[in-house]
Amino acid sequence: MLADKNKTLVVSFSGGRTSGYMTWKILQNKEEWKNVIVIFANTGQEHEKTYEFIKNCDDNFNFNTVWIEGVVTHKKGVGCTAKVVNFKNAARKGEPYEDVISKYGISWTKSPICTRELKQYPIQAYLRQIGLKKQERIMAIGIRADESKRMAKNATTENLIYPLVNLGIDKQDVLTFWEDQKFDLEIPEHFGNCVWCWKKSYKKLITIMIEKPDVFDFPEQMEKKYGKTGAMAKHLGKNGYLKNQDSIKFFRGFKTVQDIRDMVTDDFVIFKDLHHLHITDGCEESCEPFLDEIKNENKIFINEIL
After folding, report:
1. Angle at 289 between CA 208 and CA 52, to 5 degrees
2. Which band of pLDDT confidence, cut at 50, 70 and 90, is reported for residue 272?
3. What is the pLDDT of residues 87-143, one digit of tens each?
4. CB count in 10 Å sphere of residue 176
5. Phi, psi of 233 (to 5 degrees)
6. Is the pLDDT of residue 164 over 70?
7. How far is the CA of 219 from the CAs of 39, 106, 226, in angstroms?
8. For residues 105 and 115, what is the distance between their CA atoms, to the nearest angstrom?
9. Residue 278 has what pLDDT?
10. Residue 207: per-residue pLDDT
11. Which 3-state string (H, E, C) describes the chain?
12. Whose CB has fewer CB within 10 Å in the chain, the N or C terminal residue?
């Protein structure tokens, strides 16, 4: 795993099966590192089963996960800090997420700030707070060999490693491991860790709207309160993607929660997870931190807030 006894290995634990397996694997050989720190960054909008899964990993595998949440500083040019929480007092009503939205605006496809502000930056802030410098640590990211295309291009310069890619671990390997354990992540694929994530397909979102519509209460409240908040909102009705818009919306195609609700029809064929405990890390396509998302954001947004 490219171990280095002179450096601390920081494990980004998303609360999903893949990163959970990676963490377990790393801890089997933790003596190969100066120290191993496991971190979970909470958005306040994770599935309750995610929290239970992390607690089970701590109780059964001694992950000793450091639970953190981002703390927004409402001053231009000043980044977030982080606070340590735990299973009992971790936010469950979206408090960290709303705090980020209240400063930067709503996350959407051209401004995917949630992963950066709620996971990546809080992790970095916590490491600074404990005095761990970038050159003193390496970050382990939970990406499997069968999804190696998601690896960051700047992995070397950012001191990132992908242990499961190096070991050739794929989806089936992870699934087999958890089937042999006495506990598992009990979340159907379409719910994932971040239940209503705006990066999901319409089919999954509509299925969730049918099965558990109340999970959309939070994003709907955010749309109403902060639809015109943030740097991107300043360009509403002016040009580009925002030319014909009067507010920022979360979902693909600039759709609101109500638009998703309106897609529900009597003949809609819901998404079926053929293996109820199918491997998923929530919105696994893009929600792991440190995946170059910031480089793909709208230039207007970047110039405004950085």
Report:
1. 55
2. low
3. 999 999 999 999 999 999 999 988 888 989 999 999 999 999 999 999 999 999 999
4. 10
5. -65, -20
6. yes
7. 26, 9, 10
8. 14
9. 43
10. 92
11. CCCCCCCEEEEECCCCHHHHHHHHHHHCCHHHCCEEEEEEECCCCECHHHHHHHHHHHHHHCCCCEEEEEECCCCCCCCCEEEEECCCCCCCCCHHHHHHHHHHCCCECCECHHHHHHHHHHHHHHHHHCCCCHHHEEEECCCCHHHHHHCCCCCCCCCEECHHHHCCCCHHHHHHHHHCCCCCCCCCCCCCCECCCCCCCHHHHHHHHHHCHHHHHHHHHHHHHHCCCCCHHHHCCCCHHHCCCCCCCCECCCECHHHHHHCCCCCCCCCCCCCCCCCCCCCCCCCCCCCCHHHHCCHHHHHHHC
12. C
Q: In what order do the strands lie in the sheet with 35-41?
A: 81-85, 66-71, 35-41, 8-12, 137-140, 160-161
Please state the pTM of the whole predicted model.
Answer: 0.87
Q: Note whether 22 and 163 are within 8 A (CB).
A: yes
Given a contact cutoff of 8 angstroms between Cβ atoms, the answer to whether 68 and 82 are in contact is yes
The two structure tokens encoding residue 25: 């694997």
Both structure tokens of 99: 């705090």
- 252: tokens are 């693909």
Question: How many residues are recorded in the chain?
Answer: 306
Write down all domains in the chain, each with its CATH number in brackets: 8-193+277-305 (3.40.50.620)
Supply the pLDDT for residue 76.
83
Q: Tens digits of per-residue pLDDT, 201-229?
A: 899 999 999 999 999 999 999 999 999 99
Q: Half-sphere exposure of 303 toward its Cβ, with a 13 Å CA cutoff?
A: 4
Q: 251: which 2 tokens? A: 């979902």
